[in-house]
Every structure is written in structure tokens, then in C-alpha cells.
């Protein structure tokens, strides 16, 4: 089995199928590529949501562990005192995270 992808059939509502077809036509891509990208984006978003929830849970439920985390990250924050301006990484963030950073 090389890198050839296998395919299957899934059931979706006609409304979803029509939306998918319109997006694929507008972008000039196959519907499967649009679905693949949508699933990848969903997985990415879920990963970051779960990470944020785990961090918040640690902060709330394990104050000693959270204090240890803050102390450890403070060491790294001071390690980069090289006089350089911080780089703008916002173009590497998904839109939702980028918008949240700009709101601060």
C-alpha cells in the first residue's frame, strides 16, 4: 500500500452537500479536499480548546502545580533578555487566536 488514499461514502444532508459543492466550485477544488481541510481545521481547533481547558483546570485545581509552572516559565521569560524586539507571530495563529491576541 503506497501513498494512495482510499475513499468511502458518507451521508450528509443535502444542505451540507450543496454548501460543500458551492465552496469547492468557488475554490476550484474537489469536495474531498474541502472536507479534508475542514476536518484538519476542526482537529486543530479542538486541540487548542482542550489545551486551554487543561491549563485552566490546572490553574484552578492545582494551585501549587500552577505556581511551579509560573516559576519555571519565568526563568525562560528572563532567558531571552538579548535586547531584541519580540517577533510578531500573529500570522502563524489561526484567525480566532489572532483576533483574541489583538483584543488584549
TrEMBL record:
It comes from Microbispora hainanensis. This is Ribbon-helix-helix protein, CopG family. Residues 94-104 have a biased composition (Basic and acidic residues). Residues 79-104 are annotated as: Disordered.
Amino acid at each position: 500500500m503506497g501513498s494512495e488514499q482510499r475513499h468511502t461514502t458518507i451521508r450528509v444532508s443535502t444542505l451540507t452537500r450543496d454548501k460543500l459543492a458551492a465552496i469547492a466550485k468557488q475554490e476550484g477544488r474537489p469536495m474531498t479536499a474541502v472536507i479534508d481541510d475542514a476536518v484538519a481545521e476542526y482537529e486543530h481547533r479542538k486541540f487548542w480548546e482542550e489545551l486551554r481547558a487543561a491549563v485552566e483546570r490546572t490553574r484552578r485545581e492545582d494551585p501549587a502545580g500552577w505556581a511551579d509552572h509560573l516559576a519555571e516559565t519565568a526563568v525562560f521569560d528572563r532567558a531571552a533578555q538579548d535586547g531584541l524586539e519580540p517577533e510578531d507571530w500573529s500570522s502563524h495563529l489561526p484567525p480566532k487566536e489572532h483576533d483574541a491576541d489583538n483584543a488584549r
